[in-house]
């Protein structure tokens, strides 16, 4: 709470302080160091920098959606996960370890691991947030967002197969401006957001922005106790500097920070999947509910020495961009990024009041990247050459609470029957309540890239690009005894079942070698290279029409898992995945008030990365990352924007996606071989539909009226590959709305907001770890009031 009060005071104090300083009110002429982008007029296409230069979104020959910061705010987009409300084909869910999972056009990676990169990249000002957890902070002071669909690699720093989301933050500008916004709502919610833009000279400007989010009453209710989860305590700050010492040199520096102490979300057990039914904890049958009421769930009761179900995480990011104009047609750009993430989450993984399984996940990431590119124009060719280097150091550890699941109860029973003199009956009876999974990882990546567009005629252009990449990952990891609690069972029951004669000591690795002859710390590495590329043709038969066709290939780097590992072969990595995309599209503006986009795509997938299962003599099955040899995705995207009047606009989009595994034989949840051909990908609904109606006009000369109503529909989807109806995620529709009035020359805005206003009860994930199948719920209806004031 104290840090949020500090933020409130900081923003307000700076706002009133600078406005009270007469010498700072004079107009300045500083430019920002970013690619100069001019705002679009109302109803016109947004100007984007998807190809590293300013272009109308309707002039870019690729599938891209873009939204202004004001549109995001009015639509209730407060984090990257909320983009499902706006972006056709974009899907979000959370893993059982609280890590974000982004899916675009069916392409995603269902991993709970902090250390795995995503096939859908998150960028801020063109700098990659390579690990999805880095995007967990609040969104604020955003200029626009650009969502590029399909493989990306010839223009952006990191390779991705599914696409990327690039948030462009508001930059320091040449006039003094301050804005403050306060929100209050149900569940004892109170948020504050603001920014101060301050020109310091004719070449230097700074901008300070922040947002604090608080919810003091949880929305999730325990089914068995008078307890709640769902409190929010999250803060973000960003400071930006723009400096133009000469007409040829511009420098942009930004420092960002967020801090999160919110509750984690509890799943609801919807079905039983007992590993050892005869040893199930008594009463577990009565904790399973499949009534669809996502406001209720259950989790372990609090006890001394056990963490609370919440996150304690923070993130620091720094970005330095330097642009030097060597000549009017030639610019050198350096883009440096540094990230430091510390994460601690405690999550329930079974959705019951019993301690079937809960994880405390601790991790750290330090990531550094450098991108250097040279861009220019020669006659009718626009080109770019560049190089990229990144280095990441990670630790990703878990501490498990495992007391009452059926497998550990069976192992305790077996341990008590084995003659031995080392452990007391009490140590056997309480053994294996806890265990650890520990990993460390270092990643290095470098690449060379080139991209060019040739305007053959005024109507026809050709686009091509290529990128060579080398990735190296070094990994160590094992499952480990927890202060002597795990080994009374490991050295008795587990040893008997595996035939191992190892004698694990306190806090040593439990993981067996491949032949079960020793306990080991697994040490592995993966080095791979690839060439990604893109080729396309754009044809504009008239100024209001663009037809395009592209073929592209992208890669996602390999991955090592973090998981309970009985044997070291579970740590074998998944190799890099490859996606080849074919797409045709059209962008049309037949009349001034209508824009219409349509595209069709087909993806050929090789070695898709997936969390799967392997057989195990003790636990029936255990997890590991696997590669699916062959699969495919195809679909259609339709988008329309109608500016009905100067005040009223409509926009809508619809995406149909068909995903299918075409070649994969693996182990199912029961430990049997199964042919998974014909199954769809997890979290890949066939249909997603988005729509919005927005009005911005006057009700009198002194007062304006703004109203936004948006809705999104997501069709049903699989929670896990080939797992059946119990893992099905039902379709749902979310509706958001904002209504406000503006006064005092539009400097003051007073309004109402509602999120999920129809109070849809829905789930975003269905999964199992042990003994139960559970669903992770989405938020219920929230609503409130806001006031916003702009000082200028």
Protein described:
The chain is mainly β and 792 residues long. The protein is 7% helix and 53% strand. It contains five helices and 41 strands. Helix 3 (406-417) packs across helix 5. Residues 14-42 have low confidence and may be disordered.
What gap, in angstroms, lies between the N and C termini? Answer: 30 Å
**SS strand fraction:** over 45%
- Please give the share of residues in helix: under 10%
Instruction: Please identify the structural class as seen in this structure.
Output: mainly beta
The total count of strands amounts to 41
Low-pLDDT stretches: 14-42
- The number of helical runs is 5
Report the oligomer.
Answer: single chain
| Main sheet record | 22 strands, antiparallel, barrel
Average of per-residue pLDDT values: 89
Which of globular, elongated, flat, extended, rod-shaped describes the shape?
globular
User: Radius of gyration, rounded?
Assistant: 27 Å
Summary tags:
mainly beta; five-stranded mixed sheet; 7% helix; globular
Which SSEs are present, and which pair or pack?
Elements: H1 2-19, E1 47-48, E2 55-56, E3 64-68, H2 69-74, E4 90-94, E5 100-104, E6 120-124, E7 127-129, E8 142-149, E9 163-169, E10 177-185, E11 189-199, E12 204-215, E13 220-222, E14 228-229, E15 232-243, E16 249-260, E17 268-273, E18 296-297, E19 313-327, E20 330-348, E21 358-378, E22 381-401, H3 406-417, H4 425-429, E23 434-455, E24 460-480, H5 487-498, E25 522-542, E26 545-556, E27 577-591, E28 594-616, E29 620-643, E30 648-663, E31 665-667, E32 673-675, E33 687-700, E34 703-714, E35 717-718, E36 728-729, E37 732-743, E38 748-755, E39 763-768, E40 771-777, E41 782-791
Parallel strand pairs: 6-9, 13-18
Antiparallel strand pairs: 1-2, 3-8, 4-5, 6-7, 8-9, 10-11, 10-41, 11-12, 12-15, 13-14, 15-16, 16-19, 17-40, 19-20, 20-21, 21-22, 22-23, 23-24, 24-25, 25-26, 26-27, 27-28, 28-29, 29-30, 30-33, 31-32, 33-34, 34-37, 35-36, 37-38, 38-41, 39-40
Helix pairs in contact: 3-5
């Amino acid at each position: 709470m104290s840090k949020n009060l500090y933020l409130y005071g900081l923003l307000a104090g700076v706002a009133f302080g600078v406005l009270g300083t007469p010498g700072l009110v004079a107009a300045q002429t500083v430019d920002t160091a970013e690619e100069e982008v001019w705002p679009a007029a109302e109803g016109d296409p947004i100007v984007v920098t998807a190809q590293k230069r300013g272009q109308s979104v309707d002039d870019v020959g690729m599938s891209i959606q873009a939204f202004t910061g004001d549109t995001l705010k009015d639509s209730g987009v407060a984090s990257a996960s909320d983009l499902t409300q706006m972006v056709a084909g974009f899907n979000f869910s959370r893993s059982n370890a609280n890590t974000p999972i982004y899916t675009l056009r069916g392409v995603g990676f269902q991993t709970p691991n902090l250390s795995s990169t995503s096939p859908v990249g998150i960028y801020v000002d063109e700098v990659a947030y390579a690990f999805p957890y880095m995007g967990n902070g609040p969104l604020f002071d955003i200029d626009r967002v650009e969502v590029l669909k399909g493989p990306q690699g010839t223009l952006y720093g990191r390779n991705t197969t599914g696409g990327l989301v690039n948030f462009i933050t508001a930059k320091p500008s040449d006039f003094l401006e301050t804005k403050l916004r306060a929100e209050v709502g149900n569940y004892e919610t109170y948020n504050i957001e603001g920014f101060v833009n301050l020109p310091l000279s004719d070449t230097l400007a700074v901008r300070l922005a922040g947002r604090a989010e608080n919810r003091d009453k949880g929305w999730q209710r325990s089914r068995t106790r008078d307890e709640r989860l769902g409190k929010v305590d999250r803060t973000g700050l960003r400071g930006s500097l723009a400096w133009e010492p000469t007409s040829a040199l511009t420098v942009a520096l930004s420092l960002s920070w967020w801090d999160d102490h919110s509750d984690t979300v509890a799943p609801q057990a919807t079905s039983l999947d007992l590993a050892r039914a005869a040893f199930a904890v008594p009463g577990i049958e009565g904790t399973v509910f499949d009534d669809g009421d996502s406001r209720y769930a259950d989790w372990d009761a609090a006890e001394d020495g056990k963490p609370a179900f919440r996150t304690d995480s923070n993130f620091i990011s720094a970005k330095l961009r330097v642009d030097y104009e060597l000549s009017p047609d030639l610019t050198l750009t350096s883009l440096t990024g540094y990230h430091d993430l510390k994460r601690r989450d405690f999550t329930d993984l079974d959705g019951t009041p019993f301690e079937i399984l809960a994880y405390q996940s601790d991790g750290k990431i330090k990531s550094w990247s450098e991108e250097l590119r040279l861009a220019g124009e020669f006659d009718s060719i626009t080109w770019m050459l560049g190089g990229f280097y990144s280095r990441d150091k990670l630790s990703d550890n878990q501490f498990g609470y495992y007391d009452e699941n059926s497998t550990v109860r069976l192992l305790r029973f077996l341990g008590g029957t084995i003659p031995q003199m080392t452990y007391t009956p009490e140590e056997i009876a309480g053994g294996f309540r806890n265990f650890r999974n520990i990993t460390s990882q270092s990643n290095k990546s470098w690449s060379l890239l080139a991209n060019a567009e040739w305007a053959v005629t005024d109507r026809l252009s050709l686009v091509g690009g290529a990128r060579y990449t080398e990735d190296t990952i070094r990994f160590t990891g094992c499952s480990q005894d927890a202060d002597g609690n795990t080994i009374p069972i490991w050295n008795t029951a587990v040893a008997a079942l595996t035939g191992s004669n190892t004698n694990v000591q306190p806090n040593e690795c439990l993981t067996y070698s491949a032949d079960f002859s020793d306990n080991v710390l697994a040490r592995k590495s993966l080095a791979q290279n690839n060439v990604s590329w893109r080729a396309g043709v754009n044809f504009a038969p008239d100024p209001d029409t663009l037809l395009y066709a592209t073929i592209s290939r992208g890669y996602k780097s390999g991955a090592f898992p973090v998981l309970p590992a009985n044997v070291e072969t579970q740590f074998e990595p998944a190799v890099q995945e490859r996606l080849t995309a074919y797409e045709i599209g059209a962008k049309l503006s037949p009349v001034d008030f209508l824009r219409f986009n349509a595209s069709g795509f087909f993806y050929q997938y090789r070695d898709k990365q997936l969390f799967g299962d392997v057989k195990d003599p003790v636990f029936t099955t255990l997890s590991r990352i696997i590669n699916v040899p062959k699969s495919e995705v195809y679909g259609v995207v339709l988008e329309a924007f109608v500016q009905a009047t100067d005040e009223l606009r409509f926009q809508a989009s619809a995406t149909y996606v068909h995903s299918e595994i075409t070649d994969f034989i693996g182990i199912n949840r029961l430990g049997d071989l199964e042919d998974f051909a014909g199954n769809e990908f997890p979290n890949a609904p066939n249909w997603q539909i988005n729509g919005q109606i927005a009005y911005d006009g006057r009700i009198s000369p002194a007062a304006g009226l703004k109203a936004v109503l948006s809705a999104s529909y997501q069709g049903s989807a699989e929670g896990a590959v080939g797992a059946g109806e119990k893992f099905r995620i039902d379709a749902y529709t979310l509706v958001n709305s904002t209504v406000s009035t503006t006064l005092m020359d539009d400097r003051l805005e007073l309004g109402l907001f509602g999120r999920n206003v129809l109070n849809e009860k829905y789930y975003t994930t269905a999964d199992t770890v042990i003994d139960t199948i559970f669903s992770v719920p989405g938020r219920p209806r929230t609503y409130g009031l806001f006031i916003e004031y702009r000082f200028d």
